Write a sequence for this structure.
């Protein structure tokens, strides 16, 4: 389904002591119902900001949304009033974060926290909420549910905490889950367990997942489709297979560890640099690091364009190259 | 050029940049900036008091019994007291006492408290226990009480009051620094310095101290105000400056007898205390906004 | 939990002992002679000597200290050099009035300070925030004794609305039967249903309470604000928002519990400051408490009295801190 979830022309800025900085500038990003879309990017690319913009939980004095649309099931989330977006949070769209320790309130038991959310969102009595809470805890495969609920966050392990958080996030029937680097702070073995859990829940509950990470291999394992984020801009989107086998954008290729052939051109020489700094910022934000840059890249900002049924690209140099294993005609 | 000179150069440039950045941020907060200006203004007044006071002879000698208890006028801006002395001049001179007194107390308090805190935090174990138990004992006195007791027993005078304040205040700095040191001590760069064989005192003063100095600076600048207040309170109770020293708190105390007849007598010195302390507190609060990363507004 | 309380109690006792020791040493370091003070200015040297022996001042210091502690444990704080009355009696008479003043003013301070800090943190950088920050910094900068004089000036001399001092007016004291059940006028007048006395009492306590409480209003407002701001920046608040909980719920049931620790610390500190402020304010308003007593004692250098008050105040402070520690230890993060 095309318009399940769609981000269009989203621009998010931050007001800092050094002026206004643009953090997110996304032309187009679609999510299909039931899939897992992975967003991959290095630290500082704006992944968390993108995620938080969707639910509008950005810290509002420094951050502000300049323009854009986030359309979920026909509604533009950015145009909703505060009490309306509150209804969406937790019940339609939910989010889990990177650090399970800091995401849980240390002075309440985990039981109190999940029951609180269920009570408030589903308008149930305390007893009914308790029953729901127990059901969710069992769903995330935590043993000894009743005792676990009585514990404080600092009495549980990292993996247990993350499971609790997943339980809280999904406790009110959310159908879209945004997972912002949920396994980054966990050991590798625990990571596997959490990923497996998310997958199982996905098929069991029929949820759609937006998975954010900075580890490209992780993204390939988890996602059906992948979007590559560089400095707030989506540079390439494609299925996991496509991106893995046929990455086109120079940044994507660098991410995958495909080193450019000649190292000479990968960075500017001193004279070139002196020439460039007299200009304003180049139109393509990857300009200085790109070994395939052209003159056009300085002046015209690249836009995300479709190059095949499932493959989008935002780059001047390669926009005419067709994907290897796709038919030459472009169809919608 | 020697390496040392280059290194020093770079260090100084970086420090200058940080200072410029801080001043820029400070200046953005209008209220803090005004407070800073007023404080500078007060410092200047304190320095040139003998020059601008209209009746400098009134400070220590009673000269004008016929002009006693006059309301504010063009001759006597703040009115006169019961000995006919010009209150405006006395308040001006009082600026010196308050500013100098509180500066002394804070600086001495820092000189005692900060090194003790560093020692306690750095060496830990027995030294820590010993110093912190003493600190706890001092801090368990309700504020002001210790100063009152010491000033009472040493004999009321301005010097003894300042001494009493120094003794009451240094434990705060020790506790503040010690807490910081304990958390910084475990950081990587300290361990690295240790591993290279840097002597302990160098680690303490060159590595640890600069990293924990900002809350102390904030606290000290607010304390400059707090100590003026406490000093005035002590003088008000009769434990601090004695007549005829023109200390603000003392003047307010003396004014009580004539309160019904001469409202201006106690009003102006008290207002002087209020404005001075207010400005120091605003400055300290503004510094906290600048220096404390947790409350930064980006 | 019990071991925690015991430990803090022992620590408190140890601290109190230290306080007594320090004060005792201070008294002995004193330049003037308590014996001479006792007998007055016109005594002969023989009389001074006799007084010295009577007061036990000729004994070696450690014996004096032992005697003092022994007497202290019996509740004997010595005799005031001025009035020759037992210090403990004089304190007992006056302490309730001061306690009343401290409690009522702390209550007012919390009533004003907490909501102010809360509103300030909730609407950061709005005009409410700027106003309350300026107000609270002003409150902690104002000299208490000056505020007392100014308030007296405005409300008594200019407006004539409120009395200038005392706990009850002369008229009431002469014509009404003053109840003495708990020793606290606030409670006594309410219990006996005597609203005339109650109203009169309120009129008398309002100005001293404001003066004593001004500093603490500012302190409480500032500390509440900074504690809440720090909490509202935490990840778990962000997460709570993402689950769809309303701002109101987040602030009042989540953030508030997290801020219990710093708030209790603030309140304790506030009450400590309030106690000290009473020393300054009571003489101005002729409030019959220990503040006035100690202010007078200090002028005459009446050492037993000063020591007695010091010990009492330190004792109250230690108890206050103990209660605060117990409340803070309810926070699950605190390791007992």
């Amino acid at each position: 389904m095309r318009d399940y979830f769609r981000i269009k022309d989203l621009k998010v800025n931050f007001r800092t002591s050094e002026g206004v900085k643009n953090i997110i500038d996304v032309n187009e990003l679609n999510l299909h119902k039931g899939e897992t879309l992975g967003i991959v990017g290095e630290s500082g690319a704006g992944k968390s900001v993108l995620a938080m913009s969707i639910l509008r939980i950005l810290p509002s004095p420094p951050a502000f949304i300049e323009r854009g649309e986030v359309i979920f099931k026909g509604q533009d989330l950015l145009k909703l009033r505060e009490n309306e977006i509150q209804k969406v949070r937790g019940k339609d769209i939910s989010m889990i974060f990177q650090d399970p320790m800091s995401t849980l309130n240390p002075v309440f038991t985990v039981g109190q926290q999940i029951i609180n959310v269920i009570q408030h969102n589903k308008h149930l009595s305390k007893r009914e909420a308790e029953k729901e809470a127990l059901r969710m805890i069992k769903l995330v495969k935590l043993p000894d549910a009743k005792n676990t609920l009585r514990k404080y966050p600092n009495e549980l392990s990292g993996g247990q905490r993350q499971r609790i958080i997943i339980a809280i996030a999904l406790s009110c029937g959310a159908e879209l889950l945004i997972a912002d680097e949920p396994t980054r702070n966990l050991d590798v073995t625990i990571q596997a367990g959490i990923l497996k859990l998310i997958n199982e829940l996905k098929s069991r509950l029929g949820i759609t997942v937006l998975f954010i990470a900075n580890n490209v291999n992780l993204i390939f394992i988890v996602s059906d489709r992948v979007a590559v984020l560089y400095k707030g801009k989506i540079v390439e989107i494609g299925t996991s297979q496509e991106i893995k086998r046929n990455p086109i954008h120079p940044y994507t290729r660098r991410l995958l560890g495909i080193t450019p052939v000649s190292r000479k051109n990968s960075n500017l020489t001193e004279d070139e640099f002196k020439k460039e700094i007299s200009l304003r910022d180049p139109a393509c934000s990857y300009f200085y690091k790109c070994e395939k840059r052209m003159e056009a890249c300085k002046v015209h900002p690249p836009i995300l364009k479709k190059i095949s049924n499932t493959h989008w690209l935002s780059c001047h140099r390669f926009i005419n190259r067709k994907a290897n294993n796709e038919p030459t005609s472009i169809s919608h | 050029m020697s390496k040392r000179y280059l290194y020093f150069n770079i260090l100084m440039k970086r420090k200058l940049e940080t200072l410029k950045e801080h001043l820029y941020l400070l200046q953005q907060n209008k209220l803090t900036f005004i407070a800073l200006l007023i404080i500078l203004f007060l410092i200047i007044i304190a320095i040139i008091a003998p020059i601008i006071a209209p009746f400098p002879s009134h400070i220590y000698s009673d000269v004008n019994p016929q002009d006693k208890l006059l309301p504010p006028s063009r001759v006597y801006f703040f009115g006169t007291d019961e000995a006919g002395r010009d209150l405006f001049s006395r308040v001006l001179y009082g600026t010196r006492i308050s500013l100098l007194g509180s500066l002394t107390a804070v600086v001495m308090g820092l000189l005692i408290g900060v090194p003790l805190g560093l020692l306690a935090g750095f060496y830990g174990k027995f030294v820590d226990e010993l110093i912190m138990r003493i600190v706890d004992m001092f801090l368990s006195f309700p504020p002001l009480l210790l100063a009152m007791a010491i000033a009472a027993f040493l004999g009321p005078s301005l010097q003894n009051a300042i001494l009493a304040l120094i003794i009451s205040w240094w434990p705060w700095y020790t506790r503040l620094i010690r807490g910081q040191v304990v958390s910084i001590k475990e950081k990587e760069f300290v361990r690295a310095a240790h591993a290279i064989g840097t002597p302990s005192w160098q680690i303490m003063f060159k590595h640890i101290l600069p990293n924990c100095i900002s809350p102390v600076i904030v606290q000290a600048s607010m304390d400059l105000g707090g100590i003026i207040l406490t000093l005035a309170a002590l003088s008000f109770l009769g434990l601090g400056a004695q007549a005829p020293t023109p200390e603000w708190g003392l003047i307010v105390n003396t004014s009580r007898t004539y309160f019904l007849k001469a409202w201006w007598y106690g009003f102006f010195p008290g207002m002087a205390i209020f404005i001075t302390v207010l400005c120091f507190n605003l400055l300290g609060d503004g510094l906290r906004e600048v220096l404390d990363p947790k409350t930064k507004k980006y | 939990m019990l071991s925690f309380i015991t430990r803090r109690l022992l620590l408190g006792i140890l601290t109190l002992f230290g306080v007594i020791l320090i004060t005792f040493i201070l008294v002995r370091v004193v330049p003037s002679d308590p014996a001479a003070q006792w007998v007055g200015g016109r005594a002969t040297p023989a009389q001074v000597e006799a007084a010295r022996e009577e007061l036990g001042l000729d004994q070696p210091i450690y014996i004096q200290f032992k005697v003092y502690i022994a007497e202290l444990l019996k509740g004997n704080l010595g005799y005031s050099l001025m009035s020759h009355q037992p210090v403990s009696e004089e304190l007992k008479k006056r302490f309730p009035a001061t306690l009343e003043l401290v409690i009522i003013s702390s209550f007012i301070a919390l009533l004003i300070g907490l909501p102010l800090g809360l509103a300030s943190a909730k609407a950061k950088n709005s005009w409410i925030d700027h106003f309350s920050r300026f107000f609270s910094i002003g409150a902690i900068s104002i000299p208490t004794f000056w505020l007392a004089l100014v308030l007296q000036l405005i409300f008594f001399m200019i407006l004539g609305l409120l009395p200038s001092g005392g706990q009850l007016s002369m008229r009431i004291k002469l014509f009404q039967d003053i109840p003495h059940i708990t020793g606290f006028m606030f409670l006594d007048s309410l219990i006996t249903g005597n609203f005339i006395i109650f109203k009169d009492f309120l009129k008398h306590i309002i100005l001293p309470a404001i003066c004593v409480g001004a500093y603490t209003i500012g302190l409480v407002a500032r500390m509440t604000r900074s504690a809440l701001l720090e909490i509202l920046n935490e990840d778990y608040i962000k997460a709570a928002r993402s689950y769809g909980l309303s701002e109101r719920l987040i602030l009042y049931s989540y953030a508030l519990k997290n801020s219990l620790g710093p708030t209790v610390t603030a309140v304790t500190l506030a009450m400590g400051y309030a106690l000290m402020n009473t020393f300054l304010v009571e003489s101005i308003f002729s409030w019959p408490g220990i503040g006035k007593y100690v202010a007078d004692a200090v002028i005459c250098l009446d050492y037993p009295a000063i020591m007695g008050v010091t010990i009492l105040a330190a004792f109250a402070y230690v108890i206050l801190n103990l209660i605060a520690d117990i409340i803070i230890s309810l926070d699950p993060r605190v390791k007992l």
Q: What stands out?
A: The two ends of chain B are 39 Å apart (CA to CA). Chain B has one domain: 24-295.
